[in-house]
């Protein structure tokens, strides 16, 4: 029987609750699909940091390297460990070290979910650059604590980095409605964003069948609210993509529905799948976190592993459940009830 080795990193807060839910659903899908998912649990988290002084062991990345995929819950417990420490100790190094440069985030309304917009038919695939740009981490502070203190955070855009994310976007657009929106702010940022625009136009020549539109971040933010149906694939830098995908989550009814995949398309190292939402310490372990975003991320993992029909089964199970109004109102259904309903459709 075919078997996939999965590293499970539930992390902090509701990350643990939703990973457990997603894992149950994935196991059911595997059983039905005639393949195995062999999970190994890693307790790397803020609690782990409190015990060991690090978010993961020094050889953590090496340990993960041999897995076929990583399923992650959420990282962060700011009351105990500053976010700048926890995220730079676990989530961000995995994305960067494994060169998971494409952060894929689908935004559409699940049936039965009421979004805040008039429009109900939008289907946007945000593709966020995930390894460089504004989140490279280059910079520093000098004259700390004095009145003359200076902080510098430098965005780094490389030709390789920009070109590959755009190519990835164009390839995705080809499998969909053949429209690509490239997002910059080249009217104000005249170096990096003009560079991005130039590369966009050059890459677009290889995809004459895809309709390209170049937007500024402010304009596309408004468009996502006013005319979301006009968008198909949206490619953006790390910071812009981060912000647009929380907006995307909002228009699809909330962060409880927003799934994501951190993909290294060359497949030489594991890709990572995680809900867009964070650890939500205020509702951790109360049994009310919506597991749908994590389960949907799990479906994206199955797809990446080549288990297409199992991925489709999980998605239609989610949709069958939301169609019946289960998991469609924040706080209405318990994590267990939503998970149980998805499992019942699969069984
Ligand atoms: C996300 C999150 C992270 C990011 C944070 C927690 C560093 O907001 O996945 O969107 O900005 O990448
Ligand atoms: Mn974010």
What does this structure look like?
With 347 residues, the protein is α/β, with parallel strands linked by helices. Helices cover 41% and strands 22% of the residues. It contains twelve helices and twelve strands. The strands form two sheets. The protein has a ten-stranded mixed β-sheet, with helices on both faces. The protein has a two-stranded antiparallel ribbon with strand order 6-7. A hairpin with a 7-residue loop joins strand 6 and strand 7 (150-156). The longest helix has 20 residues, at 14-33. The model has no long low-confidence stretch (mean pLDDT 98). Manganese (II) ion binds next to helix 9. Manganese (II) ion binds at residues 242, 246.
């Amino acid at each position: 029987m075919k078997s996939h080795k999965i590293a499970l990193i539930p992390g902090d807060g509701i990350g643990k609750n939703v990973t457990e839910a997603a894992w149950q659903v994935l196991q059911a899908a595997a059983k039905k699909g005639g393949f195995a998912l062999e999970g190994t649990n890693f307790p790397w988290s803020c609690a782990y940091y409190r015990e060991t002084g690090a978010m993961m062991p020094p050889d953590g990345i090496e340990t993960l390297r041999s897995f076929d995929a990583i399923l992650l819950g959420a990282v962060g417990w700011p009351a105990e460990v500053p976010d700048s420490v926890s995220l730079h100790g676990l989530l961000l190094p995995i994305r960067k070290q494994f060169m998971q440069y494409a952060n894929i985030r689908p935004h559409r309304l699940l049936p039965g979910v009421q979004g805040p917009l008039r429009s109900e038919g939008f289907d946007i695939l945000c593709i966020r650059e995930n390894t460089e740009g504004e989140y490279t981490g280059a910079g520093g502070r000098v004259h700390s604590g004095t009145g003359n203190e200076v902080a510098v955070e430098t965005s780094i855009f490389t030709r390789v980095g920009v070109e590959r994310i755009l190519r990835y976007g164009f390839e995705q657009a080809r499998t969909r409605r053949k429209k690509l929106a490239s997002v910059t702010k080249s009217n104000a940022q005249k170096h990096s964003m003009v560079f991005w625009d130039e590369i966009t136009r050059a890459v677009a020549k290889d995809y004459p069948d895809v309709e390209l539109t170049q937007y500024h971040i402010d304009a596309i933010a408004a468009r996502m609210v006013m005319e979301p149906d006009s968008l198909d694939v949206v490619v953006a830098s790390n910071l812009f993509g981060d912000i647009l995908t929380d907006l995307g989550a909002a228009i699809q009814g909330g962060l409880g529905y927003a799934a994501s995949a951190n993909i290294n398309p060359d497949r030489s190292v594991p890709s990572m799948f995680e809900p867009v939402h964070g650890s939500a310490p205020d509702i951790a372990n109360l049994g009310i976190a919506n597991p749908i975003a994590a389960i949907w991320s799990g479906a994206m993992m199955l797809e990446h592993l080549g288990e297409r029909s199992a991925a489709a089964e999980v998605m239609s199970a989610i949709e069958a459940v939301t169609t019946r109004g289960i998991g469609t109102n924040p706080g209405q259904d318990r994590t267990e009830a939503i998970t149980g309903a998805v499992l019942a459709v699969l069984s």
